[in-house]
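Q: Could you predict the 3D structure of Retrovirus-related Pol polyprotein from transposon TNT 1-94?
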Amino acid sequence: MRSAKFDIEKFSGKSDFGLWRVKMKALLVQQGLQDALKGEKDLPKTLSEKEKNDILEKAQSAIILSLGDKALREVSKETSAAAIWLKLEKLYMTKSLANRLYLKQRLYSFRMAEEKSIEDQMDEFNKIIDDLENVDVKMEEEDQAIILLSALPKSYEHFVDAMLYGRGQSLTLEEVQAALNS
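A: Sure. Here are the predicted structure tokens for Retrovirus-related Pol polyprotein from transposon TNT 1-94:
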């Protein structure tokens, strides 16, 4: 059996850390290295010292090889996969008040333009929602759906009315996005 090869785009420090993080975790799972993110103490006790060291070194190597120069410089002094991971999260998933307020402001002021594709703009909207979730801001599904409907261009006025007033008991972001995609 031939093993599959998975490549992810290097995280540059400017790209979407939340998505890179999801892909990197998936890559580590595929390689059987995900436990290294928790640190040596959380590796299975049944492993030999050599097996533990192999897992830790391979995970650290995989993360380092998936970083661009700028991001790598920021974590180059870290000595383990777990330490690199924590430092990256600290640097790029800031949970400060200023960052939370900035992300909320981006969400509440988000408006779609007629001349841009709905798909690209929905992706931008979903990125804002993901970024908020990454800093522990949880929003109700119905609120997300209302914000997205409110962001649609004027030409979608009848669609918005149908979604708001032609529904049963609930409205979800998934339903709005599915209807927009159809």
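Q: Anything worth pointing out?
A: The first helix runs from residue 17 to 30.
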